[in-house]
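Input/output pair, single chain:
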Amino acid sequence: LDEKEVDRRVRSAAYFVGLRDDQLSQSPFELSGGQKRRVAIAGVIAMEPTVLVLDEPTAGLDPVGVESILRNIRDYHTAKNATIILVSHSMEEVARSVDRLVVVSGGRLPFSGTPREVFAHGDELEALGLGVPQVTRVFHRLRAMGVDIDPSVYTIPQAREAVRDFLRRKGAV
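Output:
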């Protein structure tokens, strides 16, 4: 690539991951952990891949940093129509970030589908040693206690709607 194209890609990638122009000239040793993670992701994004594989891209970041990095990844996916493969042990992140979920355990693929389809198997996921979003755990416990409520809930907005539906069916709303 010529110098002009390299510069365009670097600036575009930096924009996608939320780095400012002045941060591009800093030594990596002067950057925070989150900024270093952004630089690493930007370096890959600058190559403009159609498939991007990210292994634990938010490990060790605070909640604000996690959400920011995930937002940047979603923005890249939308802007470039790229396939993003996100490897993560954080089911909270996965629940908010993906369209499709594949669970790998012991070399097998016990579950695959939308987050709603996969998190409907919360008890089995936990038996495999995987966590589920906290809200999913609550709804599975309610179901186990005999409450007729959708156990595939995995986000707070879904939980709010599921509780409203339950209360409407019971005539409480």
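Residues 63-80 form the longest helix (18 residues). The beta strands are 51-55, 83-87, 101-105, 108-113.
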